[in-house]
Amino acid sequence: MAAGLLVARAEPLAQPIPIANAGFESNSIAPGTFALPTPQGWSRYDPSFIINNNDNAVGVIRPDVPQLFFPGGAPEGVNAALVFLAGPQTAVAGLQQTLTATLQANTRYRCSVQVGNIASGTSLPGSADGGNVYYDLDGFPGYRIDVLAGTNVVASDNNSIGATIPEGEFRQARFYFDTDNTHPQLGQLLGIRVVNLKFPATPGVPNIEVDFDDVRLSAGPVPVAAQLSITLDGPQPRIALTGTTGATYGVEFTPTLASTNWTTLTNIILTASPYLFADSQPVTSRFSRYYRAVILE
What we know:
This protein has about 300 residues and is mainly beta. About 0% of the residues lie in helices and about 45% in strands. The protein has no helices and 21 strands. Strands 2, 3, 5, 6, 8, 13 and 15 form a seven-stranded antiparallel β-sheet that branches. A five-stranded antiparallel β-sheet has the order 4-7-14-11-12, with no helix packed on it. Strands 1-21-18-19 form a four-stranded mixed β-sheet, with no helix packed on it. It is elongated.
């Protein structure tokens, strides 16, 4: 009889970092409209002073009327933030927020934001623009998401999925970064920034607006490898799982290393490490069983 093990990379649970008005729901506007106050809890990012609430503006859109700008609506709640840059300038602009959490050592930070490529459309009566105004919003001007510590950018997503966002839809941008105990910005307040990059445009593809929703930032331990050790003390393998306390692991098995048919043996919320358990299926002389641990959340 034989038993083997594989080692899988583990991703420990992360704790969310509070972001004020992360889904832009605090601004109350009518269905199918937009408004141009800076979203509550956020401030303008306008390094070249181009925001004038006319041809360059930041605000909130509520695209929950079918076929208007985003046929599927906002991905979280009913509102999203807009960064509208139709002026002749090529400067960037956006929204930013200083958080209450500080940059910690030996931590993995995960950031995700829903990024929208708004479709062209005609506004409804009662809209902030008076309604029945057609907006040619074809193309996508590019986005950037920055995580800051103090005034320093410590990680960014520079339009990594911009080319894949269809007109009238949102896609989730995700990235992470790790700190060690020598990071120069340790202890400084974290911040989040979302930016319209205002890529060069043409009359047919004006590249005007980027929309943002469901902004998230979380922090957790830097992942370590999950370890399985196996003791064959009789026909039933006894297994010890060592990993990150609080994470949920699935332990799986397959009959041969060449097999891709992994089957769940058990799912474990790790309250202590190592966690000891037995495989109730004996390993006979005819079969091998190979094991691996995978992170579930």
